[in-house]
Amino acid sequence: MQSESDQTDPLRVVEFYSGVGGMHYAVLESKVPATVVAALDINTTANAVYRHNFPHVNLLQRDITGIKLPEFQSWNADVFMMSPPCQPFTRVGLKGDTADPRTKSFLYILDILRRMAEPPNHILLENVKGFETSETRSNLVATLDECGYCYQEFLLSPNQFGIPNSRLRYFLLAKRKPLTFAFEHQTDIMKEMPLIGSATPANQNTSSSEVVNQNTSQNKQEIPCPYSIFDPEDRDTTNCREISEFLEPHSKEEEEGLLLQDKLLDRYWKVLDIVTPSSRRSCCFTKAYGHYVEGTGSVLFSQTDVDAKDVFTKVSKSEDQSERLDLLHQLKMRFFSPREVASLHCLPPEFTFPQATTTKQRYRVLGNSLNAHVVAELFKLLVR
Ligand code: SAH
User: Fold this and answer.
1) 14, 106, 166, 177: which has the fewest Cβ within 10 Å?
2) Distance 248 CA to ligand 1 centre (A)
3) CATH class of 11-203+370-383
4) What is the DSSP string of 287-307?
C-alpha cells in the first residue's frame, strides 16, 4: 500500500461503475500519477465504449456483487472511485434508496470495505443531488467512520468551473486517517471548491464586483421560449465559456439528422430549453436526450437571420398544426450531437465512440456519465 509521502509509484485506482470512463478521464486530466488497475461495469454498451478508448485497461464486465473480498484485496488499491447507479436517489424517481435493487451493489461495496484488511487510502464518490439525504448516504458515512476515514461532501456543478452546463452533483472525498485534507474540513456540504493556500478556485477568476455589475438575466434565456423550468440551478453563469466553443462542424446530412423532428416540435415546443452559440449555459443532459425533449437537456438555435421571438409569438397564436410546424421549421432547432455533449462533459477530443454504437446508445451512456473536469479538480484535492 502506498503512502502519500511515497511519490515514486503511481496511485493504484479501481474504477467501479466505470461506464464510458468519466472517472478515468478525470484521473488523466488531473495529471496526478495514477493507473487504473481495474474498471468494472455490467453494461455492454458502456463497456464497448470504454474498451474502444482504453483498450489496455483491465475492464471487467462483471456484477460487482459477484466479486469476493480476496479479489478486492488483490487490486492493492490506493483509490476507489465510483459513481453508483443514481436512479434510486433522483428527484423525479421513486426514491427507492436502500430498498431499490440497484443500490445492492453499493451496499455490498460498503460491506467489503468494512472487511478489508487494508482498505484504500482514498475514496471519491459521485452521485445525484438527492443522495445527500438518503439512507444509503447514512450507511456510507457510518461505514467511513467505522473504517477510520475522514470525509468531505460537496454539491457542485460544472458551471461553477466555467463550463456552460448544469449538472449539479453530490461528491464525497474520503481519506483514511491519519491522512488529512489539505483544506479546512466542513461538517456541512461544501457548495464551492475550497481554497488551498493561495490557490484561486476556478470559478473565482473574476473579481466579485465585476460579477455583480453584469446583467445576469441577459444570458439566462435569449430566446423567448415560453417555459424554461428545467434548469434546477439559478446560478450566475456570466463567467462561463460560450457554447460556441463546444460546437462541432457538421455536414449538411449530419445537421439534418440532429434537427428536432416534427413529432417533438409540435408536442413539446413550449417546454424546450433553447440555447444559442453565444449562451453561457445549458441544461443537464440526461440519458433520454435525443428522443425526449422535456427536461432532458438543451437544444440549439443558431439561425442568426431568423427572429425567434417573432416566430414563437406566431406559433403561440396559430391554431393550425401545419402552419405551426412550418413556422417552427424556420428555427432549425437541433440537438447537440453526442460529441458536443461529450465536450460539455469535458471528455477530451481523444474520446470517441466505436462505430457500431447508435446515436441513441451514445446519448444514453453520456447521460449516465459525469463532468470529467469537476472530478479532476476533486481528485487533485483528494490526493493532495
Ligand atoms: N461514471 C460512469 C457512469 C456511471 S453510471 C461514466 O463516466 O460513464 C452507473 C453505472 O453502473 C452504469 O454504467 C451501470 O451499468 C453500472 N452498474 C450498475 N449496477 C452495477 C453492478 N451491480 N455491477 C457493475 N456495474 C453496475
Assistant:
1) 177
2) 28
3) alpha beta
4) TTBTTB-TTS--EE---TTS-
